[in-house]
């Protein structure tokens, strides 16, 4: 039996905290239009349900809500729909619950956090927390100086974006899967290595600098970890505490940040930007295959970064031939950024298709390109100064010399001297070594993506399940 809504029983939502400079009650004591929102919505909802017209309800409600409230509301709606599919909930029930959420007071309106118990990361140097250094030796000082006070397997003066993501979720920093010293995998594992690519490179790391641990290898490592970790846990004692419980694999967040090196690999072979574009579809195909494989092992929540503006890296600007006409308004090399944007376009299309195929997956596409480009564009306004001036380097227009990268030394009278040292204040720079970012830049980027402002759907990190 349908029970009609009573407009008197609905408490009007409090929106004061969304616009602190505007009171919901006027100086004359009259109730502002904002406090009438819930009554209007209730009447519109009642009429629509009685007339069996549900879609216009959501449309009408969107017109009544402020942009901020609508964003928060639709985030909850998406979460309800995702979870209703898993529970085989009748669609109309799911929609009614969603609309009810939109009608609630914003002071109490929030979707539950996912409480991810673990994170499994796949990527390259943008998120490598020690994988490559576990194979080929630790990165030299001054890497790690700001936060860890010594080299910590990261190409930065301190923490990376993945470190801030772990912090934001209340989890410890991820242990590199390849590191056998002092590692704890009970909260997940990091399979990223500096120089990793989506597809295998036909060179050695000594020839090209690219890691042998491509994305398919990272998945092979994860697959092995997935199977063997439960066997090892059964041994008890210390083994039980160092590996994740089985439920964590299906409840974990799976993060991906890879693809940049696949693009620069083409440039190293003197390919044109059009030639690099030609193999992007193959990159995306291999990328999506890994997503599907992780899903096949139970992974359900995916947080996927697109690739950054390669044309804004001092490394590219210093080593590639770039004409004045190819430099954009913020000083970046437009043709190289164009290839990154093409990669991102194809990746986003693939994510949309994955959502259709992987019905129980929650896939969040994060536009890290726009975040990084915005950082470059606003560098001086944000207190970073010249966005292309490298902190840890030696010589050249950008304090970058590809032959003498951060940490490089030379022998002087039988003594090893550090010549590519850190600047006095890394927090005043965006670029750490011409390729990677400073901790300060990584922290700023995290602040931009954590609330879902650059995500599709606009889902906050903690609610991406």
TrEMBL record:
One Pfam family in the UniProt entry: Lipase_GDSL
Keywords per UniProt: Glycoprotein, Hydrolase, Signal
SUPFAM superfamilies to which the protein is assigned, alphabetical: SGNH hydrolase
GO molecular function annotation: hydrolase activity, acting on ester bonds
InterPro entries, A to Z: GDSL, SGNH_hydro_sf, SGNH_plant_lipase-like
UniProt KW Signal keyword: yes
Family: Belongs to the 'GDSL' lipolytic enzyme family.
Name of this protein: Uncharacterized protein
Origin species: Deinandra increscens subsp. villosa
């Amino acid at each position: 039996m349908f029970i009609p809504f009573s407009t008197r029983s609905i408490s009007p939502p409090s929106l004061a905290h969304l616009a602190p400079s505007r009171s919901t009650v006027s100086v004359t004591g009259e109730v502002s239009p904002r406090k009438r929102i819930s009554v209007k919505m209730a009447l519109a909802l009642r009429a629509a349900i009685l007339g069996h017209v549900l879609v216009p309800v959501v449309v009408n409600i969107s017109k009544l809500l402020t942009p901020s409230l609508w964003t928060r509301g639709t985030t909850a709606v998406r979460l309800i729909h995702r979870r209703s599919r898993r529970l085989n909930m009748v669609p109309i029930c799911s929609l009614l619950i969603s609309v009810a959420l939109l009608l609630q007071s914003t002071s109490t309106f929030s979707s539950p956090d996912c409480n991810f118990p673990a994170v499994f990361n796949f990527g390259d140097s943008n998120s490598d927390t020690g994988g490559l250094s576990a194979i080929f030796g630790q990165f030299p000082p001054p890497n790690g100086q700001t936060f860890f006070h010594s080299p910590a397997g990261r190409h930065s003066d301190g923490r990376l974006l993945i470190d801030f993501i772990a912090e934001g979720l209340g989890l410890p920093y991820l242990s590199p899967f390849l590191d056998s010293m002092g590692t704890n995998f009970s909260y997940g594992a990091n399979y990223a290595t500096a120089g990793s690519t989506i597809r295998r490179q036909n060179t050695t790391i000594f020839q090209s600098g690219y890691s042998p641990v491509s994305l398919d290898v990272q998945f092979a490592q994860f697959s092995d970890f997935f199977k063997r970790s439960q066997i090892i846990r059964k041994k008890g004692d210390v083994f039980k505490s160092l590996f994740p419980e089985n439920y964590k694999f299906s409840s974990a967040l799976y993060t991906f940040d890879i693809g940049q090196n696949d693009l620069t690999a083409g440039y190293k072979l003197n390919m044109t930007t059009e030639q690099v574009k030609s193999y992007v579809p193959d990159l995306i195909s291999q990328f999506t295959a890994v997503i599907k494989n992780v899903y096949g092992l139970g992974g359900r929540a995916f947080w996927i970064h697109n690739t950054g503006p390669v044309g804004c890296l001092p490394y590219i600007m210093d080593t590639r031939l770039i004409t004045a006409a190819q430099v954009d308004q913020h000083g970046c090399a437009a043709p190289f950024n164009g290839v990154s944007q093409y990669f991102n376009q194809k990746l986003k299309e693939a994510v949309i298709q994955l959502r259709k195929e992987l019905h129980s997956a929650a896939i969040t596409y994060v536009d890290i390109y726009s975040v990084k480009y915005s950082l470059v564009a606003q560098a001086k306004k944000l207190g970073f100064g010249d966005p292309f001036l490298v902190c840890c380097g030696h010589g050249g227009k950008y304090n970058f010399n590809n032959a003498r990268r951060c940490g490089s030394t030379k022998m002087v009278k039988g003594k090893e001297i550090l010549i590519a040292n850190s600047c006095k204040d890394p927090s005043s720079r965006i670029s750490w070594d011409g390729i990677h970012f400073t901790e300060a830049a990584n922290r700023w980027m995290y602040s931009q993506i954590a609330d879902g402002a650059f995500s599709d759907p606009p889902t906050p990190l903690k609610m991406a399940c």
